[in-house]
Amino acid sequence: VLRLLEAQLQDQRREHEEEMEALKNQVDLMQEELEKQQQAFLQTLQLSPEVQVEFGLQQEITRLTNENLDLKELLEKLEKNEKKLKKQLKIYMKKVQDFEASQTMVPVERRPHERNMQVAVQRKEKDFQGMLEYYKEDEPLLIRNLIT
């Protein structure tokens, strides 16, 4: 038991050290980036107001261009997902049509019983706003569960 616990402790210690090393590297990279940004900021302060405005505009254009590219990528992903979902919808519609066609071939003895069941379902219809019924205060929990 002691050996097992020692091995687990050493594994945890090694994982912790690796994680700490990765975090230190990340902090170093962030400090370097901060220094670069501070130097750029100091250089822009030394420039004339007209050049500062032009530099600010160039930075904003760059930021907007990057944001635009990100949005284009997202749009492409969503379009691919839409095509995939449309294909799935066509497949399911075909299955429903096949199922309905097979139901029309059901013997006559079963049809009246199925009609009675449909009438019962129609009586139970409610005015739904969605697929789920829940209390308003449970909404954050429901959303969190859906996401996970």
Automatic annotation (TrEMBL):
The gene is Myo5b_1. It comes from the Eukaryota. Residues 2-102 form a coiled coil. Keywords: Coiled coil. It comes from Pheucticus melanocephalus (Black-headed grosbeak). This is MYO5B protein.
